[in-house]
Amino acid sequence: MRVSLGAVVVAAIVVGSSKSQAQLCLGAASFSAGPMRIGAAFDVGDQAKGYGAEFAVGRPKGAFGSAGVTSISYDGVSGNATSFNVSAGYSVDTDSKGKAQFCPVAQFAYEKQPDFDEFESSVNSFGLGGALGGIMSSSPSFDFVPFVSGMFVRATISASGGGFSESDSENYGVLSIGAGFVMNHSVTLRPQASFPVGLEGAKPSFGLSLGFNFGSR
């Protein structure tokens, strides 16, 4: 027996929701506060929870990228899945003061699922989309940075064992909204909600991430 594709796709949404915490367009501190960021995240979705860590690099304007690892637990399933992910994007200012940005974003994740008896399974997911965000209010030590993003995702699950081999794919969309609470221009606390689109039976996921910018400007 293996985890169903529906449960896997929900887990992929959980994994994706904690990633790409990068620029203003995604509700995070600008890389002007430091060209590197470390972060941690917790996400919960229907029948799945994820705990992750991430490292990101980028410029205040232009290219940025991140890599991370997430441990995912399924309700009623022994053992955890492990997901490795990378993402990249490019930030473009949408106002003359640089307080709002649009970013095209791409991401890839590989998830190794828990083994069931002699069966092994894994998931590859590719995502492509964009995000829009910016500073709504600010003070010398605090910025409020709401954002909205959308992504098209293709997830493929492969399972094998006991002379059995099968793969299946699903296409769906993810709409996300959230806000970053940026303290001292370098620490970001970011709640987020993600809503699957075009995926029957899938429910929203919710996450909270914490990031810290560092390094020479």
Compute the number of structural domains.
1
Annotated CATH topology: Porin
Percent helix? under 10%
Quaternary structure state of the chains depicted: single chain
* Number of DSSP E strands: 11
Q: In CATH terms, what is the architecture?
A: Beta Barrel
Order of helices and strands: HEEEEEEEEEEE
Q: Give me the Rg, rounded.
A: 17 Å
Write a brief structural summary.
The chain has 217 residues and is mainly beta. It has one helix at 5-17, and strands at 36-45, 48-58, 62-74, 80-93, 100-112, 120-134, 137-139, 142-161, 164-183, 187-197, 205-214.
Write up what this structure looks like.
Helices cover about 5% and strands about 65% of the residues. With about 220 residues, it is mainly β. The chain has one domain: Porin (Beta Barrel). The chain has a ten-stranded antiparallel barrel with strand order 1-2-3-4-5-6-8-9-10-11. β3 (about 60-75) and β4 (about 80-95) form a beta hairpin.
Key descriptive features of the protein:
217 residues; mainly beta; Porin; 10-stranded antiparallel barrel; 1 helix; 6% helix; elongated
Write the layout of secondary structure elements.
Elements: H1 5-17, E1 36-45, E2 48-58, E3 62-74, E4 80-93, E5 100-112, E6 120-134, E7 137-139, E8 142-161, E9 164-183, E10 187-197, E11 205-214
Antiparallel strand pairs: 1-2, 1-11, 2-3, 3-4, 4-5, 5-6, 6-8, 7-8, 8-9, 9-10, 10-11
